[in-house]
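2024-03-11 09:14:02 DEBUG pipeline.ingest accepted 1 chain
2024-03-11 09:14:02 DEBUG pipeline.ingest length=142
2024-03-11 09:14:03 DEBUG pipeline.predict start
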Amino acid sequence: MSDLHSGTCFCGAVEVQVTGAPEAMGYCHCASCRSWSAGPVNAFTLWKPENVKVPRGAEHIGHFRKTDMSDRQFCTQCGGHLMTNHPPLGLIDVYAATIPSIDFKPGVHVNYAETVLPMKDGLPKLKDFPSEFGGSGEAIPE
């Protein structure tokens, strides 16, 4: 896997680059991620902030903060979703679809208790979040 990946919003006005390897990859099933992504599940890649850059179009990035946990970012030109900064975790979720060249290898499902799309893939299914991120860390069956 190359250690530099680039992607853009829907219209191409904003470019996002990530370098190195993500800290984690997986799926989130919470109602907020489902609503924000307009899908039954959201594929995430988590990165340290120093590994995420916006080389073009930063002036077109809008923000929406439903909670202090998540600063969701989108293109103000096309509405395309880009990433979510999670300040309490010290990580940025660059949506897997935003960086199409990444070799997406999910390792976990989070907030699986809220799923509307059961997925039988053998990956760990956490009721909410890992304990190190303030969740219960409780695994639930597929």
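2024-03-11 09:14:41 DEBUG pipeline.report The mean pLDDT is 95.
2024-03-11 09:14:41 DEBUG pipeline.predict end
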